[in-house]
Write a structure and sequence with these properties.
Strand content: 5-15%
Radius of gyration: 21 Å
Largest sheet: 8 strands, mixed
Shape: globular
Distance between the termini: 51 Å
């Protein structure tokens, strides 16, 4: 019997690395790796980010190590690659780093996304967040030139170009959709708004009022993917990449990554590609088979909480498009106070929760994300673990939040 590989995960403690770690070294069940090291800037004892109920069990196992480190410091990253005494170098390297808070400055986005990835560099797989806007002509395959939206998104994209331009690096990237899970609270709130939507929908169900959006008729794609498939996809991609090497992987799945930045901003950034460069790297989309739209997803979630999903009138819709920042507070006035009431009347009362009911301008803005997932199925042979976003998935999410004390337990609800 051959020895199992080892793995190291950089970053992602507040996004997907906890779930990936649970797949690689489950507290119950067969391990996929012999040794796992996770490296990130957060503290876990005491925690300085949400950890959930399961991750401490993962860390308590033998041959599982968490190392707190500043990943912007090259020496800290270099030492993290040193395997434990008597162990071989790490077989698989996962890069889940990158800034995900949409309100951070462009300087921070460059430092915590572009610069950190350039320091790590030797990753088999890099997880790219859903930072692109797709057109109305979806679903889009990997060859299409989807555009990053915000300054933060542009630097996520520029990071891909930089990594793809480095010859000899075993580098593969893939684009996931909006995440669905029972444990990724931070990523839900910081990136995808799914936890926020679920929370707000529960409030309107509690008030017996419809939940409304200004973005009718709701046909825009808002693809989803379960965290189980994010973890499963990362592992499948890492094994595939290791079996081929970069050159053959580029032949099988390589795509050009085009320039979408300001030329004046990249010229002084060390490691950045020139604007005319078109680096190639293996790229895969990862979405489930739900073909979710705003109308379909909104109706499904609100129905789960016993209410309806509706759209503002044409006049209200036009006003929101012109002055979204002016209507943010008005929208939140309808439900934020009720969330506090739900937490206080819970049995027992919820004193602290990572869930939030406030919808800022970014959460209320219109976003479109529609990907084709056939390539990862055909090229890698990946089979989705959770192919559909259903009421059963929602029930699992809410039940786990309630069990860990993050969700109000209300009689008759």
């Amino acid at each position: 019997m051959s020895q199992k590989p080892s793995a190291i995960i950089f970053g992602g403690l507040n996004t997907c690395s906890r779930a990936l770690a649970a797949l690689l070294v489950p507290p119950e069940g067969e391990r996929l790796v012999s040794h796992l090291r996770i490296v990130d800037r957060f503290s876990v004892y005491p925690p300085t980010t949400y950890l959930g109920a399961e991750f401490p069990k993962v860390l308590a196992q033998p041959d599982v190590e968490y190392r707190q480190a500043n990943l912007t410091v090259p020496s800290a990253v270099a030492s993290a690659f040193d395997p434990p005494s008597g162990k071989a170098p790490y077989s698989y390297v996962f890069d889940l780093t990158g800034e995900v808070s949409h309100d951070r400055s462009e300087v921070i986005a460059i430092k915590l996304t572009f610069t950190v990835a350039r320091i790590i560099v030797n990753a088999y797989v890099r997880l790219q967040q859903p930072v692109y806007e797709t057109s109305d002509k979806g679903p889009h395959d990997e060859k299409e030139d989807v555009k990053p939206v915000r300054p933060l998104d542009v630097w996520w994209h520029e990071t891909l170009r930089m990594l793809a331009s480095i010859d000899g690096v075993l580098f593969l990237t893939w684009y996931p959709a909006f995440l669905l899970s029972s444990c990724e609270l931070d990523l839900y709130m910081a990136l995808t708004s799914n936890a926020l939507v679920i929370t707000v929908a529960s409030i309107y169900g509690y008030m017996n009022k419809p939940m409304k959006t200004p973005w009718g008729p709701g046909k825009d794609g808002v693809n989803t993917v379960h965290i189980d498939d994010v973890s499963g996809g990362l592992w499948a991609c890492a094994k595939w990449m290791a079996s081929l090497g970069r050159q053959q992987a580029n032949i099988a799945a390589g795509e050009k990554i085009y320039f979408h930045n300001d030329k004046s901003k990249v010229k002084d950034i060390e490691g950045a590609c020139t604007s005319d460069a078109q680096p190639i790297a293996p790229v895969f989309n990862l979405v489930d088979d739900s073909e979710m739209t705003m109308a379909k997803g909104g109706s499904m979630i609100t129905e789960f909480f016993g209410t309806t999903f509706e759209f503002y009138s044409f006049f209200e819709n036009a006003l929101a498009k012109l002055k979204l920042d002016d209507v943010v507070e008005e929208i939140n006035e309808h439900h934020v106070g009720t969330w506090t009431e739900m937490l206080q009347t819970s049995n027992p009362p919820i004193v602290q929760t990572p869930l939030n009911a406030y919808m800022d301008q970014w959460a209320l803005s219109r976003r479109k994300l529609s990907y084709n997932n056939s390539k990862i199925k055909k090229v890698i042979g990946y089979k989705l673990i959770r192919p559909q976003f259903t009421h059963d998935v929602l029930r699992e999410v809410v039940d786990k939040w309630e069990a860990e004390g993050s969700w109000p337990a209300l009689e008759g609800r």
